[in-house]
């Protein structure tokens, strides 16, 4: 009974803090704009999908398909937009729900040993900086983490004969989700730690006999292969770019510049370990201090040795794999966080540490919950959000534009402008061509500050300022000859 989640005051405090943090993050999704590039780009692709009804090809703009990612996360965003309307909260909430799903899987994996262990693992996961930010960000990463967590948990349940039919459904369903969310990377993230654990534990027979590999992998192909084939058929070249470029060249070719949609994120090899430390904040600071100052915490983990090994391999492998890559992002360590939370919970959850660790975890979660609105207010006051989104200028344009007066953006329409105006803005490739491209009619012009000085003086004199952000200006062209 002592291992179970006791109904004492500190346990209720931990659950209340976790609920408050989840609520604060959910509400926060509506209070800051979609950011260029990633969030606004992915949301705008989903908007085009929802409006056009084309659920196969991802369209970056009216002419260019987007080959950088599979479709699953865009499907989820498009569904959110169709259900809740074309706004930032609707675009983000499906990814928040995926984060809730990952937390639920972590809880489910730990609950058979101890509900207290399960809630500690969820608290450690939810309170980690990278997971908290990603749960609700319009990206493909949370869908990948949902898939990989299903695979890793499903395999563990299969080998240990837990969960009945749910175990293989989780394993192979998660693999399908990973392949449709991020592609073959899902196989890389899951296969290596599973094989390494089987070798370490000499569990070949259990892994072979207790997992229905044949029908499971066949079902995965039936679910995933049709979209890949249709995507290639409708947009030839997709498979080569996505499989070879995004999964081989991006990671193994130094200085790779084949990215069609942005610049490769070249960093020193091994930077992923620094990213992992940042991703685990504030726990990367809080838990070591608690370890040093609390001698009772140095007792044995609640987890068996074989499970600790499994979680350790699961947590370390993404960092080991991406140590070989120079083109990386901080989100690449996300698949490690569920395992890391479970592993650390094994040391924080023993009954001997009940009051101390419940209060510590609850205090950190409450601080994070309070920090969310504070950061939103600070960001708004400092106008930081306006540096990375055109929402403020789009709203200013909508407030003053007469019917039929279009918005044009120099040199091309940004993704946030396109999303918030639902495709009604036009791009002007060269600022000096404003009068010709506008056909002499009144228009509103959105231009970056660093391009303003490049305009000829005779054009600058005719453009009337309307509104401005730290990075852009909104101006009115009254029409007529220059």
Structure description:
This protein is mostly helical. It folds into 2 domains: 9-382, no CATH class; 387-477. It is built from 22 helices and 5 strands. A 5-stranded mixed beta sheet has the order 2-1-3-5-4. Strand 1 (407-410), helix 19 (415-420) and strand 2 (426-427) form a beta-alpha-beta unit. Helix 1 (9-28) packs parallel to helix 5 and helix 4 crosses helix 16 (337-348). The chain is globular. The model is unreliable at 1-7 (pLDDT under 50).
Summary tags:
disordered N terminus, 5 strands, five-stranded mixed β-sheet, mainly alpha, 482 residues
Tell me, rounded to a whole number, the average pLDDT: 88
Total separate domains: 2
| Strands ordered across the widest β-sheet | 2-1-3-5-4
- Radius of gyration, whole Å: 25 Å
Helix content: 55-70%
Order of helices and strands: HHHHHHHHHHHHHHHHHHEHEHEHHEE
Number of discrete helical segments: 22
The percent range for strand residues is: under 5%
Structural class: mainly alpha
Count the strands?
5
Taking the alpha carbons of the first and last residues, their distance comes to 83 Å
Main sheet makeup: 5 strands, mixed
- Shape descriptor reads globular
Low-confidence stretches: 1-7
Topology record:
Blueprint: H1 9-28, H2 38-52, H3 72-84, H4 88-111, H5 115-126, H6 129-134, H7 141-159, H8 166-181, H9 185-201, H10 204-209, H11 213-234, H12 238-252, H13 271-279, H14 283-293, H15 305-322, H16 337-348, H17 354-382, H18 391-400, E1 407-410, H19 415-420, E2 426-427, H20 434-437, E3 443-448, H21 449-452, H22 457-462, E4 464-468, E5 472-477
Parallel strand pairs: 1-2, 1-3
Antiparallel strand pairs: 3-5, 4-5
